[in-house]
Amino acid sequence: MNARNRKIMNVGDRLMAARFLGVAASAALLAGCVSEPIASTRVDPASPIAPEVAKLASADKDFPSFNEIPSKPTDLRPPRIYGERAKELEVARNQLDAATAPNTWVLDQTGAFESRARVDAGPDLGAPTNTDTEAFANTIRKRATPPPPAKR
Predict the structure, then answer these.
(1) Is 107 helix (H, G, I), strand (E, B) or coil?
(2) Which of 10, 32, 81, 103 could form a disulfide with 77 if both were Cys (CB 3.0 to 4.6 A apart)?
(3) Which stretches of the chain are DSSP H helices?
(4) What whole-number distance in Å separates Cα of residue 139 and Cα of residue 127?
(5) CA distance 4 to 10
(6) pLDDT exceeds cutoff 70 at 109
(7) How far apart are CA 83 and CA 89, in angstroms?
(8) CA triple 81-84-89, angle to 5 deg
C-alpha cells in the first residue's frame, strides 16, 4: 500500500497559527519596553525634593573614559608565589595529620555494639495487624463514656 503522506485534519495549519500568535504576543509584550518611561515622568512641584531633582536632572554628568582606567597594580606578588604558598600549606597539613594520627579514631567493629544494643532493647516486636488495631479500637469504644446530656 503506497498511500500518500498527508497531514490529517490540517494539523500543520493549527501549528502555524499557534506559532504566529506566540510571536505576535511576544512582540506586543516587548513593545512596552521600547519607550523610556522615566523621561516622560514629572515631579510634583510641591514636593520638598523637587528642586534637587531638577538640579540633578539638568546637571552635566562626567562619564569615565577608557583613559581614566587605572594602570595595573605593581604591588602584587607574582603568580608563582601563590603556588609556593599552596605547597607550604599542604606540607603543614601533612605535618599536622602526622602529629595527630595517634589520637584519631574510626568507627569499625560496630557489629558487637549493634548486637549488644539489640539485646538491651528487648525482643523484636512485629508490625501490628488489622486485627490488633480493630481489637484495640473496640476496647477503647467499650471504655468510652458518653458526655452528660446538655442542661437546658
Answers:
(1) coil
(2) 81
(3) 11-31, 50-58, 79-100, 110-121, 130-143
(4) 20
(5) 15
(6) yes
(7) 10
(8) 125
How long a stretch of residues is the chain?
Answer: 152
Specify the DSSP class assigned to residue 101.
G
Average model confidence (pLDDT) for the chain?
A: 83
Instruction: Please tell me the distance from the alpha carbon of residue 41 to that of residue 50, in angstroms, as a whole number.
Output: 13
Distance separating alpha carbons of residues 57 and 28, to the nearest angstrom: 31
Q: Which triple of cell numbers denotes residue 99?
A: 602529629
Tens digits of residue pLDDT in 111-129: 999 999 999 998 888 887 7
Sole residue written with cell 500500500: 1
CA distance 85 to 97: 18
Contacts of 54 (CB under 8 A, 6+ apart): 43
pLDDT digits (tens, 9 = 90+) for 14-47: 778 888 999 999 988 888 777 666 666 777 888 8
65-77 burial: b if 16+ Cβ within 10 Å, else e: eeeeeeeeeeeee
